[in-house]
Write a structure and sequence with these properties.
- The structure is a homodimer.
- By secondary structure, chain A is α+β, with helices and mostly antiparallel strands.
- Chain A has 4 domains: 91 residues, 2-Layer Sandwich (Uridine Diphospho-n-acetylenolpyruvylglucosamine Reductase, domain 2), CATH 3.30.43.10; 119 residues, Uridine Diphospho-n-acetylenolpyruvylglucosamine Reductase, domain 3 (2-Layer Sandwich), CATH 3.30.465; 119 residues, Alpha-Beta Plaits (2-Layer Sandwich), CATH 3.30.70; 77 residues, Alpha-Beta Plaits (2-Layer Sandwich), CATH 3.30.70.2740.
- Chain A contains 16 helices and 19 strands.
- In chain A, strands 12, 13, 14, 15, 16, 17, 18 and 19 form an 8-stranded antiparallel β-sheet that branches.
- In chain A, β18 and β19 form a beta hairpin.
- The N and C termini of chain A lie close together (10 Å).
- At the A-B interface, β9, α7, α8, α10 and α16 of A face β9, α7, α8, α10 and α16 of B.
- Chains A, B: This is FAD-binding oxidoreductase.
- Chains A, B: Keywords: FAD, Flavoprotein.
């Protein structure tokens, strides 16, 4: 594909497909769509297309394939790896699904709903709640991220432990292929062994194989019992031992197990309005335990008390508090969820989104700390996350008083240190955020050639014109 | 690819790759591998290759691609759609994984094991048990089916309700591609968003995209409490209402919910040694309820009693018995699992393995019965299965005294009747058995062209020489 700037004729033809009212061409209005949250990438684009239907998406991609015009799908623009950001050369058009935000159907009896790709995650949660059901996907950006992006990145979040990633929450998809063809795979079945698993190929493909325009999503009964505990303990090793007890005791009633370091509590209490340290004592590490039960409220109560007793007896729990109200439970989760934002006032932050086998978390934490501090004395490691999934957001705040720009210039260097330890442990350099632009070349470097080659073969088979979010995940 | 008979030179070259001791060329020894369980297909093949390592599998597929020799992977030969059966023209070689039956690693702390593709399912279950863990996949043929086949068909069975299909039980794969290249995707991670989901593409591909030589499988804590109840009730509608109560009450502690008709109880008590009717009363329909709890044995006991009470109060349960011992629980499951075999002495049986959204099961059962009996008065419908998954094995035994051959000649006709009702309900014509040869052309007929075309593009991208189990799932 040529990387020519789209001609005014081509711009007009695209505009005609959705109508002038549904394009954005004013550079000032386009600007916020060209940067992502962390400011790592800045793209350029002459046009944002806002189709109102699957047919319009189809027409756009057909014209794109015909004219060799690259299309970047965008939903909530909350991705963290530059997957939704166009290239800087101004040759790519943005396709925004924001107008396709209908809940097409909701069936509480069958425990499912059908949402369009532009639905905001929080709206899907609310729709489920309105019929007495739970849609469990939950993440910090749920007020603005959208289902199409959640699916395209196989989003994770805080409820993965019990309910799985987005992949596990989806029964069927409607996808517009790069050629403009529409695949209606909106199945509502728990079991269906009829050929290759196309659904899971599109989920997590970060918009490089097609545009997900709608999905059948699973709903769950709302839990009857819910308990949240906040526990102070000595080390990740102690946290892991407590996790094993929790897992054995609660089974799938264990709906969250989040690890946090002392510095994370300091950052949030210092910078996030309304956050207070839940415990009167100071501990090196903390876990937030979330338990949800379906049979009775008493079961959750019994489980949380039994867990803390077992933890105290085994010398794992130093101190703990159980949320006494819904408001207190929310406050504990709010602290955990604001831990990313709380790092911003502390200066630059170099991020990692890694996973290792759960049992290797303590060894990973120790080795990574040693490696990071050897390379950068004074670095403040704020590593927190989903211990139960083996997924740690290994964030490094700059040393106090350091120069932010000079610190951030060492992003790749610090990545190399942390990722080497992750790979040594058989881990992943992107547990839930995806590859996008940020980790594309690194992925190609660490994976066997055959794996990248298989992905490329699939990409070429689905997108022969190379117009679908080119340059993301794999190079063309 | 030419469909020439392999020359003696080619046979010698393949033989040399694994050594003469590890091939089968005696037609009598080959014979049992050329037929499948139901006798629907009879293939021909001059040679069975039994590689002992991933490297040998790689050498075989490389030579196959070079010489254009078709290879049919076979593990336990228990498939029900002819996916493991070579073509009748004698041009295809069988690759048996039976020697690759090592458990390479087992890690109870991390809740996983690594099994080779030739491991028998029951051996994997036992290996898990030996370290105090559960590998939950369970099906009638577990004593002879093997992990490679379980993965390649995305096997289901009786524990899907709580634990999912084989797809949900697998973390990583090692696959030999048709070109002989080896993909090492043996990851042990709960979360890993690094590119296209190759794992799920190979799972369920029925050996057409490569040979699965090893897999990382998930283990679970062994349940502490276990209760099995056998319930007599009036109709599938009553069973569905009871399922909803069970689902709300037990959540993921509901580990089985199987529907059976009266005729199934009659067939099993008549033909299966040791099976007796568990209830003194006669009912039109039955369900087997299986509840497993992780916190205590009392919870399971409490749940099963609460469910039966609720069911009696709501007028859903006519009579019920709770297994009083492990032996009684096993006997109830044995009755359910021998329901397929129990049909054989009753003459011909025309099979369906369908799924519909769970809420549509009663309407489907009624419509299918009407359609089948209108076309074939006297047909004896023995429809049973995994109600909680929406998956019914809709089997039709021949009318008493009918001619078996004439009856079986109407297989496609009866399929057409049942499948039309399934499709009308948004269902699947193969819930868990796959496509193989049996449903290949039917799949192509019912699915949009783009879907079959996408599968074909993937097939060509992965298997350019067309040597990998050709003719299965999709035509070339």
């Amino acid at each position: 594909m040529d990387a020519r700037l789209p001609s005014s004729d081509i711009i007009s033809r695209f505009t005609a497909l959705v109508g002038p009212a549904n394009v954005v061409s004013d550079p000032q209005e386009i600007a916020p769509r060209l940067v992502e949250n962390r400011g790592l990438y800045k793209g350029a684009s002459p046009l944002v297309l806002k189709p109102g239907s699957t047919q319009e998406v189809s027409a756009i991609l057909r014209l794109a394939s015909e004219t060799g015009t690259a299309i970047v799908p965008q939903t909530g623009n909350t991705g963290l790896v530059g997957g939704q950001t166009p290239s800087a050369d101004g040759t790519q058009l943005i396709l925004s699904l924001e107008r396709m935000n209908r809940i097409r159907d909701i069936d509480p009896l069958a425990n499912l709903l059908v949402a369009e790709g532009g639905c905001i995650l929080a709206d899907v949660q609310k729709a489920a709640e309105s019929v007495g059901r739970l849609f469990p996907l939950s993440l910090g950006s749920e007020g603005s991220c959208r289902i199409g992006g959640n699916l395209s990145t196989n989003a994770g979040g805080t409820a993965v432990l019990a309910y799985g990633n987005m992949r596990q929450l989806c029964l069927g998809l409607e996808v517009v292929l790069p050629t403009g063809e529409i695949w209606n795979g909106l199945r509502r079945l728990k079991k269906d062994n009829t050929g290759y698993d196309l659904r899971d190929l599109f989920i997590g493909a970060e918009g490089t194989l097609g545009v997900i325009t709608a999905a059948v999503l699973k709903l769950f009964p709302q839990p009857v019992g819910h308990q949240v505990a906040f526990v102070g303990l000595a080390s990740p090793q102690h946290a892991l031992a407590l996790f094993e007890k929790a897992s054995n005791l609660c089974g799938t009633a264990l709906t969250g197990f989040e690890l946090m370091p002392r510095i994370g509590i300091e950052f949030t209490t210092r910078h996030i309005a309304g956050v207070r340290d839940p415990l009167p004592t100071v501990h090196d590490w903390y876990v937030l335990v979330d338990i949800s039960t379906s049979d009775s409220a008493e079961t959750a109560e019994r489980l949380v008390h039994a867990l803390l007793e077992q933890g105290l007896e085994a010398g794992l729990v130093e101190n703990a508090v159980i949320a006494a109200s819904v408001a207190q439970a929310k406050a504990l989760w709010h602290m955990r969820e604001s831990m990313s934002d709380a790092q911003k006032p502390e200066g630059g932050s170099i991020k990692h989104d890694v996973s290792v086998p759960v049992s290797k978390i303590p060894a990973f934490m120790a080795a990574a700390e040693e490696g990071v501090l050897a390379a950068m004395p004074g670095a403040r490691i704020c590593a927190f996350g989903h211990l139960g999934d083996g997924n740690i957001h290994y964030n490094i705040s700059q040393p106090v008083g350091a120069d932010k720009t000079a610190f951030l210039a060492r992003w790749r260097e610090m990545n190399a240190i942390v990722h080497a330890i992750v790979l040594e442990a058989g881990g992943s350099i992107s547990a839930e955020h995806g590859i996008g632009q940020l980790k594309r070349d690194e992925l190609a470097a660490i994976r066997p050639e055959i794996e990248i080659d298989l992905m490329r073969r699939i990409k070429h088979a689905f997108d022969p014109a190379g117009i679908m979010n080119p340059g993301k995940v794999i190079s063309s």
